[in-house]
Predict the 3D structure of the following.
Amino acid sequence: MAWTAWSSIRSTHARNVSTLRRSPLSEISGALGDLGTLLPILIALTVKGSISLSSTLLFSGLANIFTGIVFGLPLPVQPMKAIAADALGHSFSVAETVSAGLLVAVVILIFSLTGLLRWFSRVIPIPVVKGIQMGAGLSLIVSAGSSLLGPILDSVYPVWTDNSLWASFAFLLLLATAHTPRFPYALVVFVLGLSLALLGMFLSDEFRLPSPGLWRPPLILPTPSTLNGRAWDSATGQIPLTILNSIIAVNHLAADLFPAIRTPSTTEFGLSVAAMNIVGCWFGAMPVCHGSGGLAGQFRFGARSGASVILLGAFKLVLGLVLGESLVGLLQKFPKSLLGVMVIAAGLELAKVGETLNTVARDLDEEALADVEGEDGLMMNKNKREPDSEESSRRWTIMFMTVGGYLAIGNAAAGFAAGILCHWSFEWHDRFEKWRARRRQEQLTSNEETERQSLLEGADPT
């Protein structure tokens, strides 16, 4: 088993290196594709005093490097959004934030080791999973408009380094490069945003550049008081979101985006999420997970291998060790106009997965036809069946019911509940119709038997 794992890592490493050599700018650009989701939450939690910025950069960087080496995919390491929302809304202390993250990590670890994650992946219908992905994408677009772009567009006295003109420029550049995937859009926008942030700091009254200073690890020990109450409530809201969007949806999206690469199992994704938080949360790091939105964003901006997140992880690791908390001021100045457009692009990429519901979705696989040579060895070529119009309509209905529940209530758990109830309603209707047909057939058979018996009795000469 150890030799098999080592051979897999060697194969993944070779693919990472070859992809980076072939398209270095695309990999670097793709590494920055999730910044629109990461930076606003990271900055807000740091300013609130709910996390340690240096520990978050260091441990999320290590997680990026680990996942890039082991999985060979541009998997994002992004905030647990339900916990982040509670931490911001209720002013969590660092201990409360990491306690919530540890609780989620322990539950995910148990689910992974007991096989419950595999069971969830098998029984949850594909239209519900696609609906969660599409809902998450549309939710990203809505949040980009309300929290990032909205305040800028409504501002009476806009700042010259962060205004609607920069948002328009970023959007027009996005449209102009939509059909040139090798153009490093995210890298260009990031460099532009960093330059504007530095200019904004230089021209402000409180000009202070980030200063070097070695990381001093804070040890945060959860106590019974921090593990109860608000932390547990926050973890309870995060667990279904992590299972659905950070594990199951990522598993499906990775298979869709990278069909030539072995897709990690839901158990592997679950163990990865658990390990990231069980290691980092003790030092005040932000609770993190993988996410389908981040994966779509990094793919959209050019990432095609684990090399992209390895580079990002190394960059974050150096920042966390050397600059750490002194980066807060610079991050606060990063233009929200540019971040907002990047989030919209990532949201659109994620929402697009819904179009494959009735064409290349995983549950449409039929028997394998042949083994064909793939990029990383022999891959199974599977034939996709085409659902009829009634089944297609039903699948669309379930997916959009999931999307509607997600957007109406504002979380993945609500979307899942709406979608699964819609799916069950179709299932119950089918079973009821089958039962009625069986009853009619039994009644018909019974009537025919009675009629035959009557004829036999009438023909009896006695």
